[in-house]
Design goal:
Bound molecules: fe (ii) ion
Number of strands: 33
Distance between the termini: 45 Å
Number of helices: 3
Structural class: mainly beta
Radius of gyration: 21 Å
Strand content: 35-45%
Oligomer: single chain
């Protein structure tokens, strides 16, 4: 069977005619861009110490860089989508100027059941949806985000899933983390406030209540409230300030009647329905939510959020038109890829809690996503955002690292070079730093022409100068989702 993949992000072979040597053999016969090129899964778990380093690793870079992403174990039973892949975490531990690497699958209950039965069970997000399948119509892969809560490393799923605890020293799956009072499924972008240690969470679903919101304290206390929404929604993130959380209700949702009749969730952009942001006191209830209307749009990720007196400011990566049409340049795979084009630019919304006044507008026009900030700035006025640049022709890949000054939209970009794609790049403060950008940016990069990966470390204050250190990895790291940094963690 001839592969019909045309673009370089999904090309099956490099310029020397080689397929990735560490990918499972079963991808060879499947004409699907999410199984090739930058997306090709790997088929081994690897551990490697004393990795070769180009340049010099800073001595105060001490901790672990961890990144989650989809990496399917079994051949798909139906048309595969990138979002379906089993969660795999790649990590590099830094300390004393040295680096160690490991990757491990997240051993979710779904993956365990498939291993027990000897093959795949769930078709994936492109359907068909069979509610008779064990654990539901979709496999909770825990493939999306990673957060550190109370010393634990937790893997989360974009559809609202069960928290999976991992050992941050080995990446071994400890098992589901389910404190009393916390719903069994919460959103991938629930957030930990570094000042209080609280986990601010939300969840959403197809049946009322369509959203739940709450706070898990480090002592295990859970605050929770149901949130009234007009119907099922797909919020991906929320904003957090010291006093408030900002809930998202975008006019991108599927028709519940069509869903009931066909089992298909077909999201539509309702251009006549406003975007709504609900400002709720951190420990507030549904009755205390103040909803503010804005121009219709969609947003995956919040960059920063803070209070200015009675005004709440939220900056995010806004998609002005989520109804992305297939582009003829993408050929036969256009319809599939258009759904994850991630056409988003920096945008600011302001909500005055005293007067009810609002304002909104662009901060920048660059197509960039997967934002990171200084980890201690969550909820506080923030000057710098660090984002992944996304080329229009190559959806869901990151071809450069961007530093944006959120006060005026000015930016610095480091281009990774042809055929080289990065990951989400957390900011790691330098020891004793006082300036907000005095620290490091850490990212995996993968060269799809060589099927080789490295970790690059940048000075955030001098991004334009390029990496100060490159760590050569023994294996390839495919495209993935979210990353985080856990300070002070050594490998076991
Ligand atoms: Fe996300």
């Amino acid at each position: 069977m001839a592969l019909e993949i045309t673009a370089r992000y999904g090309k099956a072979l490099n310029p020397r005619g080689e397929a990735p040597p560490d990918a499972p053999a079963w991808i060879g016969g499947i004409d699907n861009p999410y199984l090739h090129g930058a997306f090709a899964p790997v088929c081994h778990e690897t551990t490697a110490a004393d990795l070769p380093v180009w340049g010099e690793l800073p001595r105060d870079l001490h901790g672990v860089y961890v990144r989650n992403g989809p990496n399917n174990v079994h051949p798909p039973t139906n048309r595969y989508h990138w979002f379906d892949g089993d969660g795999m975490v790649h990590a590099v531990w830094f300390g004393d100027g040295r680096a160690r690497y490991a990757n491990r699958w997240v051993r979710t209950p779904g993956l365990a059941l498939e291993e027990e039965r000897g093959g795949p069970i769930w078709p994936g997000v492109l359907g068909p949806f069979d509610f008779g399948l064990p654990l539901g119509p979709l496999k909770d892969t825990a493939n999306t985000d990673l957060i550190a809560f109370d010393g634990r490393l937790l893997a989360l799923w974009y559809e609202s899933g069960c928290l999976q605890e991992l050992d941050p020293r080995t990446l071994a799956t400890v098992g589901p983390f389910r404190p009393d009072g916390l719903p069994g499924r919460i959103s991938a972008h629930s957030k930990v406030d570094p000042a209080t240690g609280e986990l601010i969470w939300f969840s959403y679903g197809d049946r009322a209540p369509y959203m739940r919101y709450g706070v898990l304290a480090p002592d295990g206390t859970v605050h929770r409230t149901d949130i009234t929404l007009p119907g099922p929604r797909r919020p991906h993130d929320l904003g957090v300030t010291p006093r408030f959380s900002i809930l998202h209700d975008f006019p991108v949702f599927f028709d519940p009647e069509t869903f009931a009749r066909t089992g298909k969730r077909i999201p539509l952009f309702h251009r006549d329905v406003p975007t709504r942001f609900g400002v709720i006191p951190r420990h507030g209830t549904d009755a205390e939510v103040r909803w503010f209307d804005f121009a219709p749009c969609y947003m995956l990720h919040v960059v920063a959020c803070w209070e200015e007196g009675d005004t709440v400011v939220m900056i995010g990566c806004r998609t002005a038109d989520p109804t992305l049409r297939p582009d003829p340049r993408d050929g036969k795979i256009a319809a599939m890829l258009s759904g994850i084009k991630l056409q988003a630019n920096l945008y600011a919304w302001r909500m005055d809690l005293r007067t009810g006044a609002t304002s909104e507008g662009d901060l920048d026009d660059l197509n960039a996503e997967f934002p990171m900030i200084h980890p201690d700035r969550l909820g506080l006025p923030t000057r710098y955002g660090y984002l992944a640049r996304i080329p229009y022709e190559i959806p869901a890949t990151f071809d450069g690292l961007v530093k944006v000054d959120l006060t005026d939209g000015s930016r610095t970009v480091f281009d990774y070079g042809p055929g080289v794609f990065g990951s989400e790049a957390p900011f790691v403060p330098r020891e004793g730093a006082t300036d907000e950008d005095d620290g490091y940016l850490v990212t995996f990069v993968t060269d799809v022409d060589r099927w080789a990966s490295e970790v690059w470390v940048f000075h955030a204050a001098a991004l334009q100068d390029g990496p100060i250190a490159k760590v050569q990895l023994p294996v390839r790291v495919p495209n993935g989702f979210h990353a985080t940094w856990m300070p002070g963690v050594d490998p076991a």
